[in-house]
Amino acid sequence: MTDSNLTNVLDAMGGKQFPGGCVDCDAFQEVIPVEAGVWSLAIFHDDDCPALARMERGK
Ligand SMILES: [Zn+2]
C-alpha cells in the first residue's frame, strides 16, 4: 500500500467509528481528522474498563 492509498483510506474513515482497540472491554475507535494528512485515533472505553482504570491511575 502506498502512502497515497493510506491517505485515501484514512480520509474515508475520518469521523467513523469502528469496534475494537481494547482487549478488556467493548471499546470502539474513531478516526479524527486533525488537519490535512493528519489523523488521530481515539479509543473510547467502557466506563468500567479495567485497562482504562489502569491508565487513569498511571497519570
Ligand atoms: Zn477498554
Bound molecules: zinc ion
Number of helices: 2
N/C terminus separation = 36 Å
**Beta-strand level of the residues, as a percent range?**
25-35%
Alpha carbon gyration radius = 14 Å
How is the biggest beta sheet arranged?
3 strands, antiparallel
Strands, total number:
3
How would the global form be characterised? elongated
| Domain module count | 1
Attribute tags:
59 residues, alpha+beta, three-stranded antiparallel β-sheet, 31% strand, elongated, binds zinc ion
Short summary:
The protein is an alpha+beta fold.
Question: How would you portray this structure in words?
Answer:
The chain is an alpha+beta fold and 59 residues long. It has one domain. Helices cover 32% and strands 31% of the residues. It contains 2 helices and 3 strands. It has helices spanning 3-13, 50-57, and strands spanning 17-19, 28-35, 38-44. The chain has a 3-stranded antiparallel sheet. The termini are far apart. Bound molecules: zinc ion. The site of zinc ion has 9 residues, from α2. Zinc ion (ZN) binds next to α2.
Question: Helices and strands in order, then pairings?
Answer:
Layout: H1 3-13, E1 17-19, E2 28-35, E3 38-44, H2 50-57
Antiparallel strand pairs: 1-2, 2-3
Residues 22, 24-25, 27, 45-46, 49, 51-52 line the site of zinc ion.
